[in-house]
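Recall from the previous chapter that SMILES is a line notation for molecules. Here it describes coenzyme A.
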Amino acid sequence: MDVKLKPFSRSFFNTLSGKEAVLDPDRFEFTEYRTILVNGEKAGVVGMIFPKGDRSWGAIQIALEPRFRGKGLLQACEDMLASELKVYNLYATIEKENIHSINSHKRAGFRMLSEVDLKKIRKQGFLKESQVRLYKRLDNG
Ligand SMILES: CC(C)(COP(=O)(O)OP(=O)(O)OC[C@H]1O[C@@H](n2cnc3c(N)ncnc32)[C@H](O)[C@@H]1OP(=O)(O)O)[C@@H](O)C(=O)NCCC(=O)NCCS
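With both inputs in hand, we obtain:
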């Protein structure tokens, strides 16, 4: 499989099935989104949202067209974007019911935040009751 990240295409994103599961980059100020190309075909979107003035970590977003799911593209694309941007601390906020995404992120090396931390950030208003958050630290070597 030839996998490449290309500049974000708004028109493709608008037609992407599963885009509701990712945050729309237009709603945020500091973002880096890409269109995923697999063997020359537009397969999905991967992106990162940053807090203001801080690129030490990013909130990762990904959605793939159904026919490109189940092939391990999540890990390949998220790692490609992280290394391109040199961002080695990733967070993924996922709806509890999105079991495929939680499983896939765990397979890609993400770990669930502890119950104590999840409770704390929910109380601070940074995480909905319906969501969980996972974390991954990439090797920058
Ligand atoms: C979540 C998502 C990005 C996972 O990417 P992926 O590259 O398919 O991940 P994997 O190859 O590791 O497979 C993930 C799971 O999907 C399953 N799967 C396989 N083919 C599939 C298909 N055609 N459609 C849906 N799921 C499929 C796999 O069996 C695996 O199941 P598991 O829960 O038993 O582990 C992808 O399913 C997707 O785009 N979903 C819609 C958008 C979304 O939910 N984004 C995440 C927001 S947090």
